[in-house]
Amino acid sequence: MIINLTEVCEQKGNRDISSREPYRKTFELRDVFINPEHIVCLREATGFSKLLAESDLVNTSINPRGSFTRVSMNRGQTGIDLVVVGTAQEIRAAISENQKTLLKG
User: Fold this and answer.
1) Which pTM was predicted?
2) Burial of 75 from C-beta contacts in 10 A (0-12 / 13-18 / 19+)
3) Mean pLDDT by 10-residue block, N- to C-terminus, for the chain (105 residues)?
4) Of 30, 42, 72, 83, which has the fewest beta carbons less than 10 angstroms from its beta carbon?
């Protein structure tokens, strides 16, 4: 079972070194499809709202005062962390509703 979440990711781009403007991180939204069996941990991404408020948001309708969750994924010997839109409870509910249960019969 695969679930679809919305990831907040930093947009990588070239920075004009000659610019006198202070460097500001740029973020964008993208769809990410996750296998819930590889999720290790869900936790609130504290401080991420402040980071978004101080940066540029490209082509997004994201509210920097919204809730964000850091999803830790197992990737063999290493792991990967994703920041997704929504509270940990909302993400857990999306995972739970997508799982099927077998009935003993």
Assistant:
1) 0.76
2) exposed
3) 88 65 74 93 87 67 79 89 93 81 62
4) 30
Amino acid at 24: R
- CB-based contact 57:86 (threshold 8 Å): no
- Residue indicated by tokens 């857990």: 92
Rounded-to-5 percentages of helix, strand, coil across the chain = 20, 40, 40
Cα separation, 99 vs 84, whole angstroms: 20
Sheet holding 56-57, edge to edge: 39-44, 68-75, 78-85, 3-10, 26-34, 56-57
Rounded to whole angstroms, the Cα distance separating 31 from 11 reads 14
Give the distance, in angstroms, between the CA of residue 34 and the centroid of all CA atoms in the same chain.
11
* Structure tokens that stand for 23 in this block: 């460097």
Helices and strands counted in the chain (H then E): 2, 6
Joined together, the tokens standing for residue 91 give 């993400």
